[in-house]
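Problem: given the chain below (766 residues), write out its structure.
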Amino acid sequence: MADGGVQVPRVAGGPAGWISVLIPAILFAWFCQFLVPVARGDVILAGIDWVPSMDIRLSLLIDGLSLTFALLITGIGTLVTLYSTSYLGKHPEYPRFVLYLMIFMIGMLGLTLSDNLIALFVFWEVTTISSYLLIGFTSDSAKSRRSALQALLLTGTGGLALLAGMILLGNAAGTFSLAEILTQGDAIREHELYIPILILFLAGAFTKSAQFPFHFWLPNAMAAPTPVSAYLHSATMVKAGVYLMARMNPSLGGTEPWFWALVIAGGFTTVFASMLAIRQTDIKQVLAYTTLMALGALTLFIGAGSSDAIKAAMLFLVVHSLYKAALFLMIGIVDHGAGTRDVDKLRGLARKMPITFFAGALAAISMAGLPPFVGFIGKEFLYKAGLEAEVAATWIVGTIFAASVLMFVAAGISVARPFFGRLPDTLKDAHEGPIPMWVGPLILGTLSFYFGVFADIPEVWLVAPATWAVYGSTVEVDLYLFREVNTAFILSMITFAVGFVIYLMHARIRALLGRIFAANPIKFDPGWDHVLDGLKALAAWQTRYLQSGVLQSYIFIIFATLAVGIGATMYLQDALNFTVDIAAELEGLVFKHWAVLLFITAGALLTAYTGSRMVAIVALGVVGIGVALIFILFSAPDVAITQLLVETLVVVLVAVAMLKLPHLELRSSQPARPVHALLSIALGVLTTLVLVGVLQSDLDLRLTEYFEATSWPEAFGRNIVNVILVDFRALDTFGEIAVVVIAALAAYALLRGTRYESTSDEEGEK
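Solution.
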């Protein structure tokens, strides 16, 4: 508090801000120690047993791919959090924002470093949930809430598919360790479950990385604050799917289904997203769609699978991370200083925001693929890999050419349009951002230039080790800015020329694209709303029929589902393939057996036909006692005693409860229910068949023998049933008791609150 009791505004985010900067900075420095061994080709494994009984180990796998991602996540994370201290530092919910961002960073690091598939999935879902919280950070905005929910549902659904694929892959490989799975590529590709595994993995990867037709959630995620957009779109969440495809390439890649799925989806997403990018007027949306383009290109070249394609993909991964984070941070400064992101309203800002312009220009030049920036090298190697492809070379080169041209245009829209020209009167008050905001894009833009001039640095420390990890073996990686005039270089020159012409015609092309997309009847984002409406309608329908509030209906549905499930399973699994000699089985029955059978049957029939609750519960007790007699006849006194005690207790308690219920009308006044009778008969028949089938098979008595041998020596009990209940499965029994107690309390509260008028029949009974 300052003098006079005035609260001093939080400066640079306060402790939360500086802590958020220090954590990724320290982690970045820690990961740098692995650069030398990984550059030599070493793979580092470390971890602890997490769930040993399930062969789940919380272990880290540090190779070229995971280290590259870790450095990007922590390095860019440091700059983004520094940026956030000024961008959001005075926001009242800034500490909450920092918490979400740190959880997200931990999730991404865990995802990219995990050696165990199950642990990878856990961190995968951490990124899903934390990104939901980040996208919906402005919770009072309906747009933010909708975008967050859309991202959560789409990527969460893909995550469930991925989990199923991981379980199948773990079973097929006999292990959940990625280090071991990556060495079993041939066996996995030949496995009968390969196609289901591939489909499920790609479902998770495509939804996470917004490949067509799941592309629409990513631009909507721009509802998040700008630092979140910069982080999600540069090196983290949206590249999680790319990481997964790259990581699994040695095991799942190299087949035609893998090739065509990734090449077609990636190529189409690349061109489609580039066209959508240049028709936007919000520069943040322009950058969002160019992220889609980059994700499509990475997917395309990972699918192509050659050493040149993998090398180009890993180089472009680094290139895109540098310029995209810088451009997002740049447009955040523009929005902060000028009050708008609309490209039609921004002109001449270079005089008002010279440092931001310089940083943005460095990143935009790399994005446009101009020399001597690393973006030029990245584009050259994409062209070279496409030209050398043995299959679908025309498709690969064509998509990359179209995307590169439109990326050139998008770079101009993002930087040239806002910063050049005459400053309008509406922007006279525009101002430069504070140091923590422009230092990030300036560093990233400078790195784009530095890595282009000194290409051997990213080659040795990042691209080569990552290429070896993804390709599955050591291959030559030689990055250079320029050596000769070849087809790739000529394509680059044509790209610049065509891109410049389209940039000059941008306004007319944008209007044309707007009309084309407006005339397209297929709208993915509105279609998402229709899907949700359909799900809500389906939920309302099933609630109306399955959750009617009538207990009888609930019981009928439960047992009908059980009958269908058991019957279908027995039929599909050919479980009815057994024979029973009924005559031989009946020969062993004597009078006491028939007497007990008639006793039980009489109790069951009386329960079904009586019109009195009291008689029904007593008849059920008769059935229970009959079952206890069966246990006695077949030498199971322990089970018989337990059964008898339970039945007696149930009859007494239920009978007491029945006294509180209103009078039950006579059965004769109710219509017959043949469907219920058929269901009862079906369940009886199925239960009988299951028991007969079990008795026809060889029983595994190991557990029985274990209990017989250990009940007295270890649990000091001669009643084996009781020992099992209170010792061997004590926690299960405790849980069951808790459930029964809760149900009893609920029933007591319900019965105590029941008020009804006595009928004449009840008065007569009294």
